[in-house]
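Researcher: Sequence recovery benchmark, item below. Answer with residues only.
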């Protein structure tokens, strides 16, 4: 598996996938054929997470080749990310509570042998060990493997989901506060209360294409229970007026200024914000740190090629940037940094998010009904 840190490589991957594999996506997407054979899925998430390419671009390109009915499943998946984001934006305490719980549980489990064996891939579940190694080596796992992994972690190894979500965030190139936290909560059964995802031997055997068998799992565990419920916090995601001439802050989730809604505005200077491990609650693996920093440099180069004044700025320096606005960093560590340090800046929201997030008050099943409307608004 190779994720080269550049927009040109991301576009190449997207074009290639649309040309050769998209037509078979809905039939084959659930199979995890192993890290050497990933052509049945797009492997775009490390790029979409960083805004190197975006949902708008992916959907429009896909629809220019196929009718909606033929690729509906793929479009749904692409929009899951926006749905999870919107869901978390409306309930940001789910993220803050997660970090508080994680801090506490980390301390409780730091010498727990069951936990230490799991993160080293030394359990008695062979497929799980293989995925731990794959996660550490490739910084990516197939979606089905993520579901199996999380389910085994929670229900067979009986470890807290919060620690599993942390391991994913540390190692995934696409690590994302919304998709990851809510993905783990969903498997545990606390996202949709009472509904959990239980991995089973037959399912792993079939969808791993018989790469794994004789798997002893707890296939009857009840869902986890949480007494916490989260009601929606009403927010408006309106854009400010008069942004011309301001300094623009870009965080790691929007690293392609040239495809944003604000590409035609004139900013004084663009600051590409780098947030290293010192200012994070969850520290990234070295390879993830490097991947992010190469993506930032790739964006810097593209801006310079377009004669846009820009520089890479450490997050600790934001306080010194006056008269700024920022492409919205979303609920997650960068927004936490701004809030904790009382840094005020105007946020610029994507039109696609502004429109879609109003449909994130309920489940994905409901959100799906609005997909044709959402697509019709794509510019
Ligand atoms: C426990 C768990 C943790 C996860 N953590 C993350 C994470 O940190 N970051 C992340 O980007 N995704 C996460 N996912 C979602 C999903 O597994 C990945 O987005 C997907 O595997 C990426 O591979 P792909 O690009 O080949 O996807 P494809 O199948 O080709 O799908 C195309 C695009 O759709 C989006 N997408 C697909 N499935 C999902 C999904 N279930 N949720 C949200 N978006 C989706 C992604 O942007 C993806 O690039 C998690 C899922 C689970 C079950």
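Model:
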């Amino acid at each position: 598996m190779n994720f080269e840190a550049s927009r040109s490589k991301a576009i190449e991957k997207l074009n290639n996938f649309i040309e050769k594999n998209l037509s078979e996506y809905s039939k084959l997407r659930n199979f995890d054929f192993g890290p050497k054979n990933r052509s049945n899925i797009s492997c775009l998430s490390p790029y979409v997470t960083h805004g190197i390419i975006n949902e708008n671009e992916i959907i429009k390109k896909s629809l220019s080749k196929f009718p909606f009915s033929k690729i509906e499943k793929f479009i749904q998946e692409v929009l899951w990310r926006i749905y999870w984001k919107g869901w978390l934006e409306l309930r940001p305490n789910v993220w803050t509570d997660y970090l508080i719980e994680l801090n506490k549980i980390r301390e409780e489990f730091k010498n727990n042998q069951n936990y230490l064996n799991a993160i080293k891939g030394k359990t008695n579940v062979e497929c799980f060990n293989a995925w731990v190694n794959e996660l550490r080596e490739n910084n990516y796992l197939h979606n089905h493997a993520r579901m199996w992994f999380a389910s085994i972690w929670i229900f067979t190894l009986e470890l807290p989901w919060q620690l599993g979500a942390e391991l994913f965030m540390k190692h995934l190139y696409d690590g994302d506060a919304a998709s990851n936290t809510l993905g783990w909560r969903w498997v545990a059964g606390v996202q949709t209360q009472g509904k959990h995802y239980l991995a089973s031997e037959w399912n792993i055997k079939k969808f791993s294409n018989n790469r794994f068998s004789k798997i002893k799992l707890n296939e009857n565990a009840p869902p986890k229970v949480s007494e916490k419920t989260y009601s929606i916090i009403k927010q408006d995601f309106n854009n400010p007026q008069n942004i011309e001439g301001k300094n623009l802050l870009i965080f790691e989730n929007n690293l392609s200024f040239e495809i944003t809604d604000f590409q035609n505005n004139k900013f004084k200077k663009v600051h590409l914000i780098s947030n290293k491990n010192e200012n994070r609650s969850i520290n990234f693996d070295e390879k993830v740190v490097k991947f992010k920093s190469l993506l930032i440099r790739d964006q810097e180069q593209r801006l310079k090629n377009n004669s846009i004044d820009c520089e890479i700025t450490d997050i600790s320096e934001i306080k010194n940037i006056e008269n700024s606005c920022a492409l919205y960093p979303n609920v997650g560590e960068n927004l936490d940094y701004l809030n904790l340090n009382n840094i005020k800046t105007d946020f610029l929201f994507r039109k696609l998010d502004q429109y879609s997030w109003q449909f994130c008050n309920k489940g994905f099943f409901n959100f799906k009904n609005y997909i044709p409307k959402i697509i019709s608004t794509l510019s």
